[in-house]
Amino acid sequence: MKSVKPVLLIELVCALFTAALLFACTEDTERLPGDTDSDADSDSDSDSDADSDSDADSDSDSDSDSDADSDSDADSDSDADSDSDTDSDTDSDTDTDADTDTDTDTAFIPGDSPVADIGALSVVDGKVVGQNGQPARLRGMSYFWNIAPEARDYYNANVVNWLADDWRANLVRAAMAVEDNWGSGQEGYEYQPDRNKNMVTTIVDAAIEKGIYVIIDWHSHWSADPNNTQRKTKAISFFKEMATAYGNQPNVIYEVYNEPGFGRDQWSTVKAFNADLVDAIRAIDPDNLIIVGTPQYSSAVDVATADPLTGVTNVAYAFHMYASDSSHDIFKDQADLAISRGFALFVSEWGVSQASGSGSLDYTRIDSWLEWMNDNDLSWAAWSICNKDESSASLNNTASTSGGWNSGNLREAGDWYRDTLRSLNPAY
């Protein structure tokens, strides 16, 4: 018996060792190598994270703030790596949707175009400049009154494209009649708002597509009439609609009052109208260029800048003249005074004829005015695109309403405008 006891003792020890080993192996099969206690805790967190991600998807991406909160809670756990992987997918989806929403408000700017080169306009140190801070020097054509039979059929995209491509115009101006009523089919915005507005937006849309600048011109003389406040109400409504539709486009310019018929001593009346229009537009579009009308049919810029609008940005004062009219020579001195005061002018309408639209062309005066505009880095729109039988008109009655004009389709003014624009503006 004494010889057997050691053997039994050894067998007992081996049995206990085997049992301990089996227990250890069983425990290892429930926890993979490298796992820790904190990982085990994260199992319950991963369930709540999954619920959180699911809620984020169903709430759409606008709940990104609440996602961020739930992410920060999850990140406080030691299992931050797995949570950040899941969250990065959710954040990526959110960014994509945000970009899609933003794209609906992003400007359409064709490559290799005037707008792509010059960019958004602003007023800096008394000049209208592009995005690089250099003078914009926009030069192009103004349409004649949109209600006129000699002009209305030219209000189309084909003509805009022809002016941009062949004439090298980087600016067009849509002159929408307001209070005028010349008979059936020739009623201004007060009488036929939708028809007139659609003619304007046709030009604006074409200019945007082509990548050139466009002036939306409230072509009125008497909108500030204190005895007809409805005109201002309609003007505000119209420009709010235009700002809502086109405020994201850097090439859209608002001309809120073409040529106030009020005298030099009535600037306060015109100023009040301008101020209300600027405020209405700025409530929607904070930065696109606005041109405000000045007294005496937008010639008395000296009067306007002696008592300017205050608290406004990116506003230029309209200056109009007709180069062959000797009575307009004095306007240059008035404009020089306004410029010396540090205010931006925009020649939103000028012509090579006399102010009446007729008479012979005085090339000495025309060249002098052109040189003056170039020297002062002024942008301009020349009057006009129409086939009316007058010396300010660019076209004769053989000119197609779709463009494609040859020299035989152009009047004397049209020849001069085309040659001048091609000599000053680059081709695109």
Structure, described:
The protein is globular, with a radius of gyration of 36 Å. It is of the alpha/beta class and 428 residues long. The protein is built from 14 helices and 10 strands. β4, α7 and β5 (213-219) form a beta-alpha-beta unit. It has helices spanning 5-28, 37-58, 64-75, 80-103, 114-118, 157-165, 193-210, 229-246, 267-282, 295-298, 301-306, 329-340, 363-375, 412-424, and strands at 122-124, 127-129, 139-143, 171-177, 213-219, 252-255, 290-292, 315-322, 345-351, 380-385. α3 packs antiparallel against α4 and α6 (157-165) runs parallel beside α7 (193-210). It has an 8-stranded parallel barrel, surrounded by 5 helices. A two-stranded antiparallel ribbon has the order 1-2.
What is the fold's blueprint, element by element?
Blueprint: H1 5-28, H2 37-58, H3 64-75, H4 80-103, H5 114-118, E1 122-124, E2 127-129, E3 139-143, H6 157-165, E4 171-177, H7 193-210, E5 213-219, H8 229-246, E6 252-255, H9 267-282, E7 290-292, H10 295-298, H11 301-306, E8 315-322, H12 329-340, E9 345-351, H13 363-375, E10 380-385, H14 412-424
Parallel strand pairs: 3-4, 3-10, 4-5, 5-6, 6-7, 7-8, 8-9, 9-10
Antiparallel strand pairs: 1-2
